[in-house]
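Long-time lurker. I teach an intro course on protein structure, and each term I like to show students one example going from raw sequence to a predicted 3D structure in token notation. This year I'd like something fresh instead of my usual example. Would anyone be willing to generate the tokens for the chain below so I can use it in lecture? Attribution to the forum is fine with me.
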Amino acid sequence: MPSILLVEDDAVSALFLSAALETLPAHVHVAEDCAQALAATGPFDAWLIDANLPDGSGAALLQHLRMGCTAACALAHTADTTLSTHERLVQAGFAGVLVKPLTAQALLLAVRAALGSDPPSARPDWDEAAALVALAGNREHVATLRQLFLSELPSTRSACLEAFARADDAALRAQLHRLQASCGFAGAAALAEVASNWHAAPADAALRDAFVAASGRLLPTTD
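-- Reply from a regular --
Happy to contribute to a lecture. Here you go:
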């Protein structure tokens, strides 16, 4: 069972994050500031660090923690949605940046990915039964709509990734909303699930990566 150091000075956020992390399952040690984090008894498999703490920055804390351990993965969490802040945190050594508020599902997905234990989606890439239900059992219609879906998926994926890069949550959510409906008719179950999760947490880089993987599995490869 992994051991996680959660550094969060807000009591409500700390309670929510720690309760979610314990369902991984994981052992979670909560520190309110840099001093408590540095005094925590490790080793830890992961550090989840607030970007701004009462006695210093999350980036500075990470540098101190790295002096004693180089193996643990590190994720930052912040309410700041600006791209410059995220780039600064990544440059400081964080593997990813989580934007608060975030759902428990988005948190767990990001931490599992950082730990290298992200489980495959419980839903299949293609769900024939669901597609047939959506189209009144007409297999010909399913085949036609799936072909159309796949022809439009590359441009939809590009639009989603471009909106994410611009930190344009509204544009990204609009693309994902339309994509979810298309996935339903085509029976693209796993991608629909990822799109739904990303719609709820559009700034989450781990969900962006999951979206790229799920959409890539549906597209034909070229040699």
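Some talking points for your students: The first helix runs from residue 11 to 22. Residues 128-218 form one domain.
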